[in-house]
Amino acid sequence: MLLAIDAGNTNIVFAVFDGDTIKGQWRCSTTTERTADELGVWLHHLFALANVPVDAITGAIIATVVPAAEFSLKTLCRRYFSVEPMVVGDPAVDLDMKIIMDRPSEVGADRLVNAVAAHQLFGGPLVVLDFGTATTFDVVDGNGDYLGGVIAPGVNLSIKALHMAAAQLPMVAIEAPRNVVGKNTVEAMQSGIYWGYVSMIEGLVRRLSEEHGAEMEVIATGGLAPLFAEATDTIANCDPYLTLRGLYLLHQRNAGR
Fold first, then answer.
1. Rounded CA gap, 86 and 71, in Å?
2. Is the N end or the C end of the chain the one with fewer CB atoms within 10 Å?
3. Quick one: three-class SS letters along 90-156?
């Protein structure tokens, strides 16, 4: 079995693959002060509840956009699962993908993993739309090469910014409002966030397609992807496990090297 770890700015997701099937998935908040021992005890309990034997783990792979978390995650794999993890971004891990950027090292590991998974599963050219701490658009051409993308504030981040900057604006739940015109403050905020992001998605994908010179299929991932996909035909497919699938595919590709 494979332990896949996706460490983002907000959450760390741990998943166990039995073949290409996700046997279990757990998440915790990203806190760089949390030690490998704390994570190890926590995960061992969760493995037991899910009837996943700890000694069944034969490999591990990590993608992190939080450099300070990498040491603890690598130590976790070594100390509690007795495996040496692959780390996306390490020169030894072959992505089989050109990164056509001014500074390739600046691209987040999760975005590269998403690009690898999306191209292998859906072909290309395409745009990977990830609803995370930031809302990112990553462009992959027909050859599977990473061309760059767009980074916008995340949906939750935008709501928090409104609430913090304006004394009379409350925190609101993210949902699709019945109408574009809000009849009260909460509805108006929900409309601005929801329809504003839908319009941003449609507009940016159109511009990206025009710049690339071809229509681009949009693959969305992240917890909010299904909610926004309901409102626009621009999003062709939703895959909440895209990053995890990418980690599995990369481990499969590199395990025999």
1. 13
2. C
3. ECCCCCCCCECCCCHHHCCHHHHHHHHHHHHHHCCCEEEEEECCEEEEEEECCCCCEEEEEEEECHH
Q: Which residue has the tokens 């166990």?
A: 16
CB-facing half-sphere around the CA of 66: CA atoms within 13 A = 22
The closest of 101, 102, 85, 104 to 93, measured between CA atoms, is: 85
Structure tokens at 52: 């996943």
- Length of the chain counted residue by residue: 257
> What is the rounded CA–CA span in Å between residue 219 and residue 53?
34
Cβ neighbours of residue 109 closer than 8 Å, sequence gap 6 or more: 63, 64, 65, 88, 89
List pLDDT tens digits, range 25-45: 999 999 888 899 999 999 999
Residue 257 has pLDDT above 70, yes or no: no
Q: Cα separation of 234 and 201, whole Å?
A: 8
The answer to whether residues 152 and 200 touch, using CB atoms and an 8 Å cutoff, is yes
**CA pair distance 257, 91, nearest whole angstrom:** 13
Catalytic residue set: 110
Rounded distance between C-alpha atoms, residue 107 and residue 65, angstroms: 9
Amino acid at 209: S
Other C-beta atoms closer than 10 Å to the C-beta of 245 total: 24
Spell out the residues 6+ positions from residue 123 whose beta carbon is closer than 8 angstroms to its own: 142, 217
**Amino acid identity at 44:** H
